[in-house]
Amino acid sequence: MHAAVIRSLPGRALTARVPLAASARLASAAPARPVAGVCCAVQRCAFHVARTIPTSRTATRARAANPAFSAVRGYASGSYPPHTVLSMPALSPTMTSGNLGSWSKKIGDEIVPGDVLVEVETDKATMDFECQDEGFLAKIFIEGGEKDVPVGKPIGILVENKEDIDKFADFQPESGSAPPPAKEEKSESKEEAPKKKESEKEEPKKEAPVPKKTAESSSSDRIIASPLAKTLAAEKGIDLGSITGTGPNGRIVKDDVLNYKAPAAGKATSSAASSKAPAAAPAPGATYVDIPLSNVRKVIATRLAESKQQIPHYYLTQEINVDKILKLREVLNSQSNGKFKLSVNDFVIKASALALKAVPEVNSSWQGTTIRQFNNADIAVAVATDNGLITPIVKRAETVGLSEISTSVKELAARARINKLQPNEYQGGTFTISNLGMYGISHFTAIINPPHSSILAVGGATDKLVIDESADKGFRASKVMNVTLSCDHRVVDGAVGAKWLGVFKGLLENPLTMLL
């Protein structure tokens, strides 16, 4: 039994278990046709027709478990043995390009399914690219630190046998597998030969194309640094070229920038003066630093600008008494035996989810020709990170308890701050909460996070005197907080938004009802 690998679309292979004889018939019947974007230009190459090859069961199972894995199987043709072209993966449905971080493997290393090859920075997080094939890493086309690498672009070569590694030293994805031009047939008639020579004389000689600079030849000139290290260096005005990286493959990390000590002004070395590319002197009177945009910052800028320009926002503000929440929180935390520690935001998330179930019109999304109403309340919680804002999701928040919400939010926020969230943990959601109360902000308005129809801006609790006839002086001090609901008027009418806020306020001011 063999696996028939059939080329259908660029970058994807459909693998099916078929008998060897049937697979051979399929190979002979399949017409050879070129496929754009593959590395081999040979028409007889197995990129263009069906072939039968043994396939590792482990690798097949691993690839099925990780649909983001992107690889193209190559075959022996010309001077190159069987190989797999590793491509830049699409780690999210909206990803079109990404930044390569540090490689975890080097040329010659053995690879097994599940091994981390390289870090990939998406528009939301930095993720590990796990290989789902087995073999040996024979070639790296794009070194760590490269930005805006298109999805599907070849980044490396995997071979089955270690002794084949050296054969790919000069391999390039554009033309590496192309054979030399075919020699003229001996049977060519004497009359055709002179005509061919005349046409060659008439055709002007084309200039040889300038070879592209390969990743290997340019790797010595490229400075490899993490996005955070680059940002810190820009803020501090430090030249990355003067820092020695301590990360994998000499990558400059955050601690390298923080621990860097600039040399004394009078002790500049002569090598710096003779540098091939001296740093340009700052413009006279310049008092600013240009910070390069990360992928996350680009996405934030694009999405929120589109939201503000295309979504008709309106805002509703409500004052909520949180005295009972603070007392209940204190009681529950004191009896938790250290298993959990509830915050006011945990109550806000739970109340929001229950209010969305009570007023489902708010738990909806504008789809252009329809309004999609969701059955579950998946709450996206805004988390500030060094790279920008990210919104991990508490899924089905209406069905889980306060302690589970608290644990989930803390765990998601911790991984968000080190860029280790998986795409399914921050993509989607039906409603967003942004809480700036811990920064001393009492009131603000937030921009809707598409495709959500609403976002809740939560301020901090403040003291306020309220009328209380049972008090000695007829009034007492109370803790109140302001919340502002931003709504998409295409989806949520003003009365509906007000109804949702009323339900939300009732749940927070009577928190025991959330425990029923």
Task: Supply the key terms.
516 residues; alpha+beta; OB fold (Dihydrolipoamide Acetyltransferase, E2P); seven-stranded mixed sheet; 12 helices; 25% helix; elongated; disordered N terminus
Tally of structural domains: 2
What's the Cα radius of gyration? 30 Å
The CATH architecture of the largest domain comes to 2-Layer Sandwich
The strand count comes to 23
CATH topology name of the largest domain: Chloramphenicol Acetyltransferase
Mean model confidence by pLDDT: 76
Q: What characteristic shape results from the CA principal axes?
A: elongated
* Percent in helix: 10-25%
Number of helices: 12
Tell me the name of the CATH homologous superfamily of the largest domain.
Answer: Chloramphenicol acetyltransferase-like domain
How far the N terminus sits from the C terminus, by CA atoms, comes to 59 Å
Q: Major sheet: size, sense and barrel closure?
A: 7 strands, mixed
Q: Which range does the strand content fall in?
A: 15-25%
Subcellular location: Mitochondrion
Cofactor: (R)-lipoate
Pfam family, one: Biotin_lipoyl
Function: The pyruvate dehydrogenase complex catalyzes the overall conversion of pyruvate to acetyl-CoA and CO(2).
